[in-house]
Structures are given as C-alpha cells and as structure tokens.
Backbone:
C-alpha cells in the first residue's frame, strides 16, 4: 500500500520516548519531514542522535508560549504542516479520589487536554493553508471505559474524544480530518510504572496486577508502540483519506479496565 507520506510535514509532540518516538521514526522512514518536540532534553538529544533526519525541539505542550515557539519552528523548518500528532500525555496520580491533590488533577488535565487544544489551535491555520491535513489526538482505553483510582487520567482522555469529535465536524469543510486513537496497555516502561502504582494502591503483587490488566483484553496480550504507530500512519495517509471523527481503539479488544 502506498501511504503517500513522502514529503509530508509532520509534527509529533512528546517524540523523545515511547509511542511518540516510534511514530516520529515511522513517518521519517516513509520520507516525511518530521519535527518532534519533548520536555525531556536528554531523551530528545538521544533521539536526535539516532534519527538525524528528524528535526527536534524542546517544547512543553502545556505552556502557551512554548507551543507558539514550536509552531513558529514548524513553519520555519518544515515550511508548513500536513499532520499534527498530539501525543503528549502524562499518567497523573493513582489513588482514591479523596486522596488526590488539586495540583495533580490540574496538571493531568493541563498536559493531556489543554496541551492538545493549544497545539490544535496553532496547527489549524497551517493545515488550512496546506489545503487540508490530519490531526491525531492520543486518547486511551481510559477514554472509553471507567478507570478506578485513575480518575484525572480517565477524565482527560474522555475529554480528548469529545474534543476530537467536535473538531472533526468543525474542520471537515476545510478538508482537515481529526481522529482520536485509543491505545490499550502498551508494552514498555510506562505501563510497568502504571502497574506498579496501581498494584501499590490496591496492595497486591505487581505480577497479579499485570495479569488482571492483560486478561481484560480478549486477545490476551498488550499492544506495542508499533501497533499504535501503524494505525496513526494509516489514518494520516492517502489510504485513510475518508476516516475522520473516529475514536479508534487499538487495545487487543479491551473489555474494561481494572
Ligand atoms: N503507554 C501506554 O500504555 C498508553 C496507553 C494509552 C494511552 N497512552 C497515551 O499515549 C501517549 C504517549 O504515551 P507513552 O506511553 O508513549 O508515554 P511515555 O511516558 O513513554 O513518554 C511520554 C513522553 O512525553 C513527554 N512529555 C511529558 N510531558 C510533556 C509535555 N508537557 N510536553 C511535551 N512532552 C511531554 C515525556 O518527556 C516523554 O518523553 C500519551 O498521551 C498517553 O496517555 C499510552
């Protein structure tokens, strides 16, 4: 399948690690021009050393001035924009709601949903100038199921779906497609941290917590960052030209979250 991504101008937020890193690399492998940002300077420098065709910039999606500088850089170094992958997201606190601090609640919402708003509103004029394009917003299985003891994260990821669906209707006439992608448990260090926090919160062993999570997917396994990246590349390609307004789960058919 020809994805038609050669020469496309792509911005990936939080591209230094995890899913974002795999997505940025995959677009570059298709011949796209990629700019990846992150708050972690060291991880970003490592990534830049390994992927010299990808442009990188330190930027915090939750900070308005930082996002403005990021889009000025996208304009200058990519010459415009065809795709925004709003990938940055933090896990937020784990625990019963009455134990959560307001600062932790606010921080989770600010990075996970306000960050997507700040980036989308700067991306839209560039996508319009390009004659159309694609925005992909990372949600989560926690954006279609309840996620006990992770209420700020779940609330932020449901918000991503509402934001994406509303924006797709708003921007369809401009030939700009907007979709949310909802990963399940993705193999890697982040899910191991999530499992550790949840196991501690429930007072059960790590291995038992991991078994409970994996058993809730009918395919009985975690997904990989490559699975998420494949879906994102497809949606943003010519092959996905009529896919918009969707909340696409890539989670091994998760039934609910524990
Ligand atoms: N890993 C999973 O199991 C999983 C499951 C469902 C959804 N997701 C979602 O996928 C996205 C990527 O997750 P991941 O697992 O790759 O995360 P990760 O923790 O592996 O990497 C996240 C990256 O985001 C960067 N980052 C954090 N705050 C930032 C900010 N304010 N601005 C810019 N960069 C920032 C970090 O420095 C890090 O490099 C997130 O939105 C996450 O919620 C992940």
Residues:
């Amino acid at each position: 399948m020809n994805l038609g991504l050669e020469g496309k101008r792509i911005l990936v937020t939080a591209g230094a690690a995890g899913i974002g890193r795999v997505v940025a690399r995959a677009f570059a492998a298709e011949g796209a021009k990629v700019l990846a940002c992150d708050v972690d300077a060291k991880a970003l420098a490592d990534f830049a050393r390994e992927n010299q065709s990808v442009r990188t910039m330190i930027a915090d999606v939750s900070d308005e001035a930082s996002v403005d500088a990021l889009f000025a850089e996208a304009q200058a170094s990519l010459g415009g924009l065809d795709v925004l992958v709003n990938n940055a997201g933090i896990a937020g606190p784990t625990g019963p709601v009455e134990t959560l601090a307001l600062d932790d609640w606010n921080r989770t919402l600010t990075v996970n949903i306000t960050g997507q708003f700040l980036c989308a509103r700067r991306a839209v004029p560039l996508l319009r100038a390009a004659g159309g394009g694609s925005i992909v917003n990372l949600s989560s299985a926690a954006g279609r199921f309840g996620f006990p003891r992770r209420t700020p994260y779940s609330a932020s990821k449901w918000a991503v779906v509402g934001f994406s669906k509303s924006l797709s209707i708003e921007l369809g006439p401009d030939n700009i497609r907007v979709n949310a992608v909802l990963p399940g448990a993705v193999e890697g260090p982040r899910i191991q941290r999530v499992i550790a926090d949840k196991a501690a919160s429930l007072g059960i062993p790590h291995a038992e917590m991991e078994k409970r999570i994996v058993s809730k997917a009918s395919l009985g396994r975690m997904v990989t960052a490559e699975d998420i990246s494949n879906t994102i590349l497809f949606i943003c390609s010519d092959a996905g030209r009529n896919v918009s307004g969707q909340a696409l789960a890539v989670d091994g058919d998760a039934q609910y979250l524990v």
Observations:
- The CA atoms of residues 134 and 177 lie 5 Å apart.
